[in-house]
Specification:
Layout: H1 2-8, H2 14-50, H3 54-118, H4 124-183, H5 199-215, H6 247-258
Helix pairs in contact: 2-3, 3-4, 3-5, 4-5, 4-6
């Protein structure tokens, strides 16, 4: 079914559709890793108790607690990746919405070329060229909208992604360091089996780990944004709250609408993509 959906995707959005689908598999792998890690943590605790060694039992139990929390961080990472993936979908959906305007422009252009070759005197040429002007004007605005949303959402998506990677790494490093503190409490002197006297210290290490997680704050480099607020039509909104089209786009559209038919070359595209300032922000 997923393969069928991929085949039905517009050509413009097929590559991003594949990326989003692949990320879905990756997210599933992280969720599976989280469940497995939590399960292993429980098994380690059970095994330590079964050894009959108080030192091993106490240390392994607390290692299991920390390892379980490491597994929870995998699940949190998967949730953050899902948020990032949802933002990519917005780009994909915009690409899908632009494809029809491209197709319509190409269809009219092909029909004009066909008539010029077979029926150069056809009166339908004038009508088609007028339709082409309108189609190119619509496509021009659609392409500008696509550029706006792509830049804005690309920054937003990978801001979420990179922040999630940093959070997962820093928290897991933090937990691993506390785990190493626990290991320092275990006496592994050969043929010596003293009573475990560090239960209080071991509990304090868990308390320290819990406190560190609670007090953790992101310290990421801020991703700046120079983009204005986007209007309902994905174009920059005016200060009055009304959506407006970039003047360069408007000028180009107006020039197309006013250009005489005899001056137009339908064999090539007159569309120019407008670059807009970027904005930050499972299927």
């Amino acid at each position: 079914m997923a393969s069928l959906r991929g085949m039905q995707q517009p050509e413009l959005s097929k590559k991003l559709f594949k990326i989003i689908k692949s990320e879905n598999h990756a997210i599933g792998a992280y969720e599976s890793a989280s469940r497995e890690r939590i399960s292993i943590a429980s098994q380690i605790s059970d095994w330590g108790e079964a050894t009959g060694d108080d030192s091993i039992s106490d240390i392994s139990d607390k290692i299991g607690v920390l390892m379980s929390e490491i597994g929870e961080q995998e699940d949190l990472f998967a949730q953050n990746l899902e948020d990032y993936r949802s933002v990519l979908k917005q780009i994909r959906n915009t690409e899908s919405s632009v494809q029809p305007s491209r197709d319509q422009k190409a269809k009219i252009t092909d029909e004009i070329q066909r008539l010029k070759y077979k029926e150069p005197q056809s009166t339908k040429l004038v009508q088609l060229e007028q339709e082409l002007v309108r189609a190119e004007a619509q496509n021009l605005v659609a392409e500008a909208q696509l550029t706006n949303i792509t830049r804005q959402k690309l920054k937003e998506a990978y801001d979420i992604h990179s922040a999630a990677v940093i959070e997962r790494a820093e928290k897991q490093i933090m937990l691993a360091r506390h785990m190493r503190r626990l290991l320092q409490l275990l006496d592994d002197t050969p043929d010596v089996r003293p009573a475990f006297e560090h239960s209080g210290q071991a509990r304090q290490i868990l308390n320290d780990a819990e406190e560190d997680l609670r007090e953790w704050q992101p310290s990421n480099l801020e991703i700046p944004s120079a983009a204005t607020d986007m209007g309902a039509n994905l174009m920059p909104a005016s200060t009055a709250g009304e959506s407006t089209v970039d003047p360069s786009v408007t000028d180009e559209v107006q020039a197309q609408l006013e250009s005489p038919r005899k001056d137009r070359d339908v064999s090539g595209s007159t569309m120019v993509q407008q670059e807009q300032e970027p904005e930050h922000q499972r299927q």
